[in-house]
Amino acid sequence: MQVGFIGTGTMGNPMSRCLLDAGHQLTVHDVRREATTNLCEMGATWADSPRAVAEASQVVFSSLPGPVEFQQVVLHPDTGILSGLERNSTYIDTTTNSPTIFREVAAQCREAGIRIMDAPVSGRPPEMTIMVGGDKAVFEEHRALFDDIARNVFYVGETGAACVAKLVTQYMGYCNHITALEGMIMGAKAGIDLDILASIVPVSAGASRAFNGVPSNVFTGDFTSNGTLNIIAKDLGLACELARDVAAPAHMGMIAEDVYHRAQTQGMGQMGFHAAVQILEQMAGVELRTKPKS
Predict the structure, then answer these.
(1) By three-state DSSP, how is residue 116 classified?
(2) Distance in angstroms (rounded) separating the CA atoms of residues 131 and 129
(3) Burial bucket for residue 107 (CB in 10 Å: 0-12, 13-18, 19+)
(4) Which residues of the chain are modeled with pLDDT < 70?
(5) HSE value, Cβ hemisphere, 13 Å, CA-based, for 49
(6) Which of 64, 146, 222, 234 has the greatest count of CB atoms below 10 A from its CB?
(7) Upstream peptide bond of 77 is cis (omega within 30 degrees of 0)
């Protein structure tokens, strides 16, 4: 199949590799051409704009930083996807996106005869999870493509439903992250051994996926993990915006959002999201660092 991929960074690049490995003819574009170098070496074709990708493809994927970039890539009158896709072709966006903005853009795509699905992802290809929203018949038609890039594939519902599902999971994960850090700081302030506490947490009521990176990233001061703090702050902000839109409580989200925002103002945005611990450490007057085990 002739497939296009726009945005070949941290997530888009491995997804593109999966599509190439599955035998698809791939056309790629990224604002940083060097982000496509390995894909072109594997057989992908470079295109100089999203529109050029669309013109060469039956199905176009995108993986973008956020709603602003999504709107630009789709709707730009000269270089956008919408100006290049033929009627009845398909566009699949994997961006962690605003449901409201996605639905607005989707309406314009449908008016132009383009089939569109929101398909945000979690984890890393090919073991990742993908959530899909849109017409169910269109989803079923493209199920094999989703299986090429993800182990866990969920059809969530109509347009925008997958955007909601992704924001809910991001909200849970990164609010839990701040809670886990606060708990460890509590233990440190009370004077107990952090390594012992870290061994207890995974086999107790405190167990959570959000805690898993604390020993390897926080105890060591290694803030270079996947997922920059800027991206996490953006996702959590979108989740809190969704909560306001649907009149749902988001008390923990407001607290976590404040911590990530403070970290951004102190220049930590391009660091791994675990760097947010430094804000809590400053407030508590203690650091969560341990000596390397001999």
Answers:
(1) strand
(2) 7
(3) exposed
(4) 293-294
(5) 16
(6) 64
(7) no
